[in-house]
Amino acid sequence: MSSLVVNTNLSAIQAYDNLNTTNASLDQAVSELSSGLQIQTAADNPAGYVTAESLQYQSAGYTQATANAQNGVSLIQTAAGALNQITSILQTMDQLALNSANGATTDSTALAANQSEFSALQNQINQIADTTSFGTTNLLDGTFSNEVLQVGAFNNSNDQITMSIAAASTGALGVGSNVGVGSVASAQAAVSAVQAAINQVDTIEASVGATQNQLQAVIANLQVGNQNLQAAHSALVNVNFAEETTQYTNDQILMQSGVAMLAQAQQQPSLVLKLLG
Q1: Has residue 144 got a pLDDT over 70?
Q2: What fold is seen in the domain 72-237?
Q3: Does residue 32 or residue 249 have the better pLDDT?
Q4: How many CB atoms lie within 10 A of CB 167?
Q5: How far out from the chain centre does Cα 197 lie?
């Protein structure tokens, strides 16, 4: 049986401590419900805070890496479009070479006309090779070699793709100024040179196409990975409103009952007056 004392009201002290605990819990519930976050600072959950920050910067890295890869696809599409034009020009050059090689029916006037058009087409290929660019980066003049695409969130080889695009000028393709169709003999040689150039451009296109497919696969993987990272971050830092609302309601009830009990406990020493009376 507890003693009835005046100087030390243990019941009031215990009720006060309980009330402080409830008030702290209520403040936490209000903070989480108003912010929507169960981890707002490192003090809330040090280990969880560190993990959440790691997930957040990794997610941001995935977002940027996705943009990088998409830019890479755009770059390749730019190069592929120009290569398609070059192929089309080479096919026309092949027709001209075959026409000039048909010496039985082709006279000197036709040979000269074919040569004029052939030269113009050579200049057109060089113009495409020299001016095709992505921003200020030339793509088909032979300078785009061992360029790095950052397609991951970290600095390692698995998060990087090295790209190169071979030169597509007439010189690089073997159909430079030394190749012509002004005579039957030169046209016969030009047929082989132009057809070899077409095969060479096809090889370049196949290479950039394979890289484009690789980048598109990387983009798909990054997007799925980023969704998973965002889900993990959300589960870690976002508050469960159903759970926290329940806790908030409980804390409100405890707060009201705690205040009432503290008031009752503070009245206990007054019972001593009845003994004195």
Answers
A1: yes
A2: f41 fragment of flagellin, N-terminal domain (1.20.1330)
A3: 249
A4: 18
A5: 37
